[in-house]
Amino acid sequence: MVDWCERKGVGYIVDLAKNKRLNGLTADWMEAAKKGLEASGDKQRVFGEFYYAEKSWKCERRVIARIEYMEKGINPRYIVINLEDPDFGDNG
User: Fold this and answer.
1) Residue 18 in contact with residue 27, Cβ under 8 Å?
2) Cα(31)–Cα(88) distance, rounded to whole angstroms?
3) I want to staple 51 with a disulfide (CB 3.0 to 4.6 A). Which of 29, 36, 47, 60 is the partner?
4) Model confidence pLDDT, tens digit, residues 5-44
5) What pLDDT is attached to residue 1?
6) Percentage of the chain with pLDDT > 90?
7) Is residue 89 part of a domain?
8) Whole-prediction pTM value?
């Protein structure tokens, strides 16, 4: 689907399944969120972006990560996106 969107010039934001590789790439952000929770007692959210390629992809693509740490534990989420300048609003 992403290849089709790129061929047709269609913008996309697509959920990306968590995996060990993505979690490894964001391990520092996960640790920062954990430390923030331990220090404040409040749920923490950390956002970041990087370029990544699945084995089946022809090229690297932009990935946005949202790492959420709360009392129940970690909840990382990832999206692959081709939009140039999305407005995600505030980090809360």
Assistant:
1) no
2) 22
3) 60
4) 998 999 999 999 999 999 999 999 999 999 999 999 999 9
5) 87
6) 77
7) no
8) 0.83
Q: Reply yes or no on whether the pLDDT at 86 is more than 80.
A: no
Distances from the Cα of 33 to the Cα of 3, 13, 21, 36, 44, angstroms: 33, 24, 19, 5, 5
Residue 30, domain member (yes or no): yes
Instruction: Tell me whether residue 87 is in a domain.
Output: no
Burial of 46 (0-12, 13-18, 19+ CB in 10 A): buried
Nearest CA among 82, 1, 74, 80 for reference residue 43 = 74
| Residue matched to tokens 């996106």 | 81
Asked whether residue 11 is domain-assigned, the answer is: yes
Residues 71 and 40: their CA atoms lie apart, in Å, by 11
Please, where are the H alpha helices in the chain?
2-8, 20-25, 27-40
Q: Please tell me the chain's helix, strand, coil percentages from 3-state DSSP, rounded to the nearest 5.
A: 30, 35, 35
Structural domain harbouring 64: 2-81
The domain total for the chain is 1
